[in-house]
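User: I'm preparing a small set of examples for a lab meeting where we compare how different chains pack in three dimensions. I only have the primary sequence for this one, and I'd like the structure in token form so I can line it up with the others. Please keep the answer compact; I'll paste it straight into my notes.
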Amino acid sequence: MYQNHPPSPKETMPTMYDLPGELIGESGLPDEFHCIQADLLTETCQPTNYQTSEILLASDLNLYYDPRHPSWYKRPDWYMVLGVTNTNQQEDLRLSYVVWQEGIDPFLVVELLSPGTEQEDLGQTLREVNKPPTKWEVYQQILRIPYYVIYDRYENNFRSFKLNGTRYEPVDLSDNRFWLEEIKMGLGLWRGNYQNTEGLWLRWYNNNGWLPTLAEKAENERQRAESERLRADKLAAKLRDLGIDPDSLVN
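Assistant: Understood. Below is the structure token output for the 251-residue chain.
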């Protein structure tokens, strides 16, 4: 007589609908800089070897990482997951990212240093007894996230780490830029104005330069349309000089 197999963890473990997205009084919620910087990272993240539907770009979205302790989570300032399936329906948008449900760990995490979180972000704090592991431990030892990036806007200090075996090793940066071959893009420090705010920002680039924001894409499109209009006007003027009505050619 055959017995039924036990249900899979995906059927028995809590899902994003069961786990809290935020806790009242929780510290470390984003300030204005965190929100603007996260927007810039998301807008300029345009890898050519992945479709938009295959990439999750998340900012301050709870990351549940340990099925043995399903209530434990971290909330990275910004992170990227490759190879996931994204929805185009509002009602299906994620409330959190639950690793044991999704089956894919993040590829990159970015932490934006704050005075109160600096030591933990840099792996300089020890885990307290009977407490969840630190960010560094989760990213390095539990999820084994390949890349970890830290930016301190107070010191304009940009640091990158790559997982080598079981440990993060610092990456030597050239001109404050860090290339990720897997996605054919890099992260670098860019000085400019974004969302009407001047400063030094983390931004994505590729072999052709800084990747455009939504506003820059719109401006580039406007300039292209204006150039096409000017060319068309010049051609029409030349035709009229030759005694040809350009409108008659259209018809």
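A couple of notes for your slides: The CA atoms of residues 104 and 124 lie 27 Å apart. The two ends are 81 Å apart (CA to CA).

User: Perfect, thanks.
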